C-alpha cells in the first residue's frame, strides 16, 4: 500500500472498471469507501464501506472524503457513443468538476481520473468532455494522476478485437504509428493494474498523465 495513508474513495465503484478495481484494492489491504446510488448498493464488494450519495454533487462527494484520502473518479456515461453528447456534458464533465471541487476543499492527497486518449478523429464530444475534466484538474492544483485509455477490452466490451488487423497495419506505417499507439486497445486487467499502480504510487509532481503504451505495460 505504498503511497497511501488515508482511505481510497471510489466514485463509480460498482461499474465496469470500478468493480474490478475495488476487489483488488480490498485484496491488497486498502481501506475502501464508495459513494454509490441507493439502487447500486447491492453491487458493492464485501468489505468496502458504502455511503449513499450523488456523484454529480460536490457536497455529496465531500461527505465521503477526509484529508489525506485518495479519490478515484470512475463516473461516466455507460457504453459511450456519438449520440450521447448531452450525457457527456451532464454526467462525465459535471461529475469530474464536482469531484475536483470536493477534492480541493477537503485536501485530498491524490486524485486519480480516467480520461480518454487524445487527440482522436472520432468521439469528439466525448474527448472534449474528458479534456475539459482534465483542465479542471490542472487548474485546481490537486495532485493527480490522469489515465488516458482509448478502449478497454473485457466482458461485454470485446467488439474492437475485430480491429486488431487494422492496428497491426497502422503500426507498420510510420505516419500512422503514433496514432495507432495512442489509440491502442488495452485489456481490463491492464487497466485495473494501471489504476492500482496510480493509487499506490502517487506522482512526485502535481500532475502525471499515463497514456496507452504505459497502461499496456501494467501487469
UniProtKB/TrEMBL annotation:
Q: Where is the NAD(P)-binding domain?
A: 12-149
Q: Which Gene3D superfamilies match?
A: NAD(P)-binding Rossmann-like Domain (3.40.50.720)
Top-rank taxon, per record: Bacteria
Q: What would be an example GO MF term here?
A: protein-containing complex binding
PANTHER family, sorted: NADH DEHYDROGENASE [UBIQUINONE] 1 ALPHA SUBCOMPLEX SUBUNIT 9, MITOCHONDRIAL, NADH-UBIQUINONE OXIDOREDUCTASE 39 KDA SUBUNIT-RELATED
What is the protein's given name? Answer: Cholesterol dehydrogenase
Provenance organism: Candidatus Accumulibacter vicinus
Amino acid at each position: 500500500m505504498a503511497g497511501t495513508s488515508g482511505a481510497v474513495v471510489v466514485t463509480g465503484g460498482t461499474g465496469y472498471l470500478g468493480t474490478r478495481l475495488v476487489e483488488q484494492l480490498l485484496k491488497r489491504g486498502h481501506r475502501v469507501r464508495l459513494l454509490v446510488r441507493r439502487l447500486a448498493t447491492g453491487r458493492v464488494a464485501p468489505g468496502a464501506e458504502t455511503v449513499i450519495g450523488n456523484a454529480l454533487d460536490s457536497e455529496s462527494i465531500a461527505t465521503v472524503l477526509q484529508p489525506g484520502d485518495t479519490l478515484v473518479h470512475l463516473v461516466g456515461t455507460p457504453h459511450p457513443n456519438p449520440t450521447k453528447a448531452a450525457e457527456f456534458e451532464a454526467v462525465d464533465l459535471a461529475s469530474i468538476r464536482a469531484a475536483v471541487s470536493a477534492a480541493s476543499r477537503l485536501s485530498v492527497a491524490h486524485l486519480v481520473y480516467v480520461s480518454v486518449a487524445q487527440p482522436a478523429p472520432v468521439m469528439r464530444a466525448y474527448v472534449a468532455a474528458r479534456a475539459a475534466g482534465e483542465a479542471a484538474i490542472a487548474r485546481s492544483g490537486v495532485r493527480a494522476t490522469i489515465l488516458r485509455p482509448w478502449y478497454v477490452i473485457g466482458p461485454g466490451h470485446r467488439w474492437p478485437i475485430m480491429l486488431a488487423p487494422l492496428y497491426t497495419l497502422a503500426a507498420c506505417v510510420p505516419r500512422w504509428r503514433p496514432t495507432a499507439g495512442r489509440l491502442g486497445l488495452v485489456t481490463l486487467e491492464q487497466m485495473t493494474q494501471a489504476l492500482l499502480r496510480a493509487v499506490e504510487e502517487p506522482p512526485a509532481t502535481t500532475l502525471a498523465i499515463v497514456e496507452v503504451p504505459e497502461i499496456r505495460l501494467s501487469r
